[in-house]
Design brief:
Blueprint lengths: L13 E4 L2 H4 L4 E6 L9 H16 L4 E6 L4 H13 L2 E7 L8 H8 L3 E5 L1 H6 L2 H7 L7 E3 L9 H16 L5 E6 L3 H10 L4 E6 L6 H11 L8 E4 L12 H14 L8 H13 L8 E6 L5 H9 L6
Parallel strand pairs: 2-10, 3-4, 3-6, 4-5, 7-8, 7-10, 8-9
Antiparallel strand pairs: 1-2
Helix pairs in contact: 2-3, 2-7, 3-4, 7-8, 8-9, 10-11
Bound molecules: pyridoxal-5'-phosphate.
Length: 313
């Protein structure tokens, strides 16, 4: 198994963005451009997979097995990682197979990933182990990654985001903000901060459960309990993959003004939140805020296919 991290760019760029909303509160705002790490092993998935792939290699794994929805950035990332590492990959997809395949699944198959499908009910109700049992998968040589790639080995890769930012700014910022799906990326950032600064997670899902999930994840991975992080739950726009016209307008305007593309599922909601929070005086005056661009741009093609070409490219 080839180590795909060996010759990768060491750091993703850290870019300042200027805006009257930020300047009037004397906020210095930067974007950590993890979307530029790799086109398909995107952003935080690249970070979360790093130590998992090193472990898979150490174990002599011959196949990556994982789970995800039909538009999942994680599935696309694992497919690409399998292809580039030279090992096979199996993706267990939530829902029925529909032809033609959407751009995400088509890409996954083109990478050589085998796709198997599980009904939405079973996908939600059953454990990964029992799903794999039902599908009669022989797990010999398999390295199994959970949905979204969140496990304890995902944390050190995401903690590296913090180390890079500190080096690039020559100091720690006051806030590091990220979009949250499972909360694994936020947990990794919290671990990297070691009690300094504040980590802010913007939940892209409706509900209040992520705070517990992240606390449990941190504890189960042996991290000390900390209180320098929080999850904001007012920016989901109706729930996962739900949106409103103002979110779409924001994404298109942001791309025009700053030249940085955002996806409507994760980073669009994070950046929208950052502007809104700045206007409401959430961030301390004269502070430094880093927004982590966790990538996910592969999802735009599928989003536009479903909802009409809403996101301008
Ligand atoms: C998967 C994903 C997230 C969510 O990451 P978690 O670690 O599950 O919270 C955020 N942004 C993008 C672009 C993603 O693809």
């Amino acid at each position: 198994m080839k180590n795909i991290y060996e010759h990768s760019k060491p750091f993703s760029p850290l870019t300042a963005i200027k805006s009257p909303q930020f300047e009037s509160r004397q906020l210095r705002v930067y974007v950590k451009r993890d979307d530029l790490l790799h086109p398909y092993i995107s952003g935080n998935k690249w970070r979360k997979l790093k130590h998992n792939l090193l472990e898979a290699s150490r174990l002599g794994a011959t196949k990556l097995v994982t789970f995800g929805g039909a538009y999942s950035n994680h599935l696309a990332a694992v497919a690409a990682a399998g292809f580039e590492s030279g090992i096979s990959a199996l993706g267990v997809v939530r829902g029925e197979r529909t032809e033609p395949l959407n751009p995400t699944l088509k890409y996954a198959e083109e990478c050589g990933m085998e796709l198997m499908y599980v009904s939405r009910t079973n996908f939600r109700k059953k454990s990964n182990t029992s799903i794999l049992e039902d599908l009669k998968i022989n797990l010999e040589g398999c390295y199994v990654l959970p949905e979204g790639g969140t496990n304890c080995l995902a944390l050190p890769g995401c903690a590296e985001i913090v180390e890079e930012i500190e080096t690039q700014l020559v100091s720690m910022p006051d806030y590091i903000c990220t979009a949250c799906g499972t909360g694994g990326t936020l947990a990794g950032i919290v671990s990297g901060l070691k009690g300094q600064s504040t980590a802010i997670g913007i939940s892209v899902l409706k509900g209040d459960f992520l705070k517990n999930d992240v606390a449990n994840l941190l504890a189960s991975c042996g991290e000390p309990a900390r209180d320098n992080w929080q999850i904001l739950t007012d920016y989901h726009f109706g729930g996962y993959a739900k949106f409103k016209p103002e979110l779409i307008d924001f994404i298109n305007d942001f791309q025009k003004t700053h030249g940085i593309p955002l996806d409507p599922i994760y980073t669009g909601k994070l950046f929208f939140a950052a502007f809104d929070l700045a206007e409401k005086g959430f961030f301390k005056k004269n502070s430094t805020v880093v927004l982590v661009h966790t990538g996910g741009l592969q999802g735009i093609a599928g989003f536009n296919e479903r909802f009409g070409a809403l996101i301008e490219r």
